[in-house]
Task: inverse folding
């Protein structure tokens, strides 16, 4: 209680962050109506906003970071905003703050940080990364790993940038077809903005929007007007979905379905507050869910974890303990490059 009170006092006294540098991305493509509506709201609020988002629809890519092997677009960008043959990374001819890149959402995050910003905006570092709002919700740990919106988000978190994934329940619309403030894309952006604005306003000048390694997953139910639905503190696990492979005997192919009954594995709660409702449940009941995640995916330090390590205890070399000064944990003079699954994939 004391900590909370002190923190609240500090927040009310210190000046809040005003104009932030905000880097936007998504997985639906840089011409997304949802993305552009939120971009407009953030700019209208005085923030310095840049979009670096996929040139085409890139849903379902998760955290996959795939770069184009061509210097130029081999086909036109989304909605023919940019023609084939144009550079694989460039700007919308109508807005030089809106960049596209012909890669996955996570690749766009990295291209933004390592190419677009240093070359074209030297000194501009993002205070916050936003992905979305996505067309369709991204709920639970399984979808977290699948979603390009989340992939763009946790890629930013991995690069020490506070990041928020935003997902709504409306369907795809080109930005130039969002013509009024009651369009579902405009409503999705407005609800997203309401949550993002709170995070920004509650951040004091000079401090980070989120602690290192932290990200936020926001999901928005279907909206019929601009009344903000109840916003609910939630968690990723809890009534979350995962897939089942559904076999078609005639076609001899598979498609996915939601496993029933709900799987226990995807809903196991070890980290965070297990009494919070799952985000899947919150959105199903008409609320906006706000879940906090970290990209420290290690199991918590509980007896289960010790039990798991204990099974292979005899394999662990002497000196693998954390407190050993002579052992493995002391930094090796030369870091050896490790072979990863990605190396095999690239071969
Ligand atoms: C790629 O784009 C650059 C810049 O627009 C252009 O100069 C070049 O001719 C293009 N190359 C191809 C193969 O289209
Ligand atoms: C983009 O720019 C072109 C050329 O100036 C113009 O014809 C078009 O209407 C613009 N589109 C939008 C959506 O602003
Ligand atoms: C934009 O709206 C028009 C009119 O409803 C429609 O014909 C067109 O297909 C839409 N464009 C896109 C890219 O969705
Ligand atoms: C706003 O746009 C939506 C979707 O295109 C349309 O259904 C609605 O009639 C429009 N409302 C107004 C007031 O123009
Ligand atoms: C956030 O701060 C801005 C700028 O001070 C203010 O206009 C706005 O009302 C605040 N929003 C909320 C939700 O507190
Ligand atoms: C490391 O040190 C801490 C604090 O001294 C102790 O609690 C812990 O058990 C030690 N861990 C190992 C693996 O020796």
Result:
């Amino acid at each position: 209680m004391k900590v909370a009170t002190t923190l609240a006092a500090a927040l009310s006294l210190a000046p809040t962050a005003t104009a932030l540098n905000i880097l936007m991305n998504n997985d639906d493509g840089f011409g997304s109506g949802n993305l552009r509506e939120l971009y407009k709201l953030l700019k209208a609020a005085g923030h310095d906003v840049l979009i670096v988002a996929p040139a085409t629809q890139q849903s379902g890519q998760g955290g996959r970071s795939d770069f184009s092997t061509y210097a130029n677009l081999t086909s036109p960008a989304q909605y023919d905003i940019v023609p084939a043959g144009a550079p694989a990374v460039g700007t919308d001819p109508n807005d030089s703050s809106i960049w596209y890149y012909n890669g996955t959402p996570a690749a766009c995050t990295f291209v933004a940080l390592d190419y677009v910003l240093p070359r074209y905006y030297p000194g501009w570092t993002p205070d916050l990364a936003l992905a979305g709002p996505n067309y369709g919700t991204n709920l639970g740990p399984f979808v977290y790993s699948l979603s390009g919106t989340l992939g763009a988000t946790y890629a930013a978190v991995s690069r020490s940038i506070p990041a928020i994934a935003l997902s709504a329940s409306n369907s795809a619309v080109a930005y130039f077809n969002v013509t009024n403030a009651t369009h579902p894309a405009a409503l999705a952006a407005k609800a997203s903005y309401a949550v993002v604005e709170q995070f920004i306003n509650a951040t004091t000048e000079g401090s980070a929007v989120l602690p290192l390694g932290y990200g936020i997953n926001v999901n928005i139910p279907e909206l019929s007007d601009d009344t903000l639905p109840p916003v609910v503190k939630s968690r990723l696990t809890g009534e979350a979905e995962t897939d089942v492979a559904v076999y078609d005997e005639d076609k001899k192919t598979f498609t996915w379905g939601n496993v029933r009954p709900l799987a226990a594995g995807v809903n196991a709660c070890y980290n965070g507050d297990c009494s919070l409702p799952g985000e899947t449940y919150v959105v199903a009941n008409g609320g906006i869910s706000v879940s906090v995640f970290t990209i420290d995916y290690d199991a918590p330090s509980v007896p289960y974890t010790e039990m798991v390590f204990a099974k292979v205890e005899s394999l662990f070399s002497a000196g693998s303990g954390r407190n050993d000064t002579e052992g493995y944990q002391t930094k090796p003079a030369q870091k050896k490059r490790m072979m990863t699954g990605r190396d095999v994939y690239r071969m």
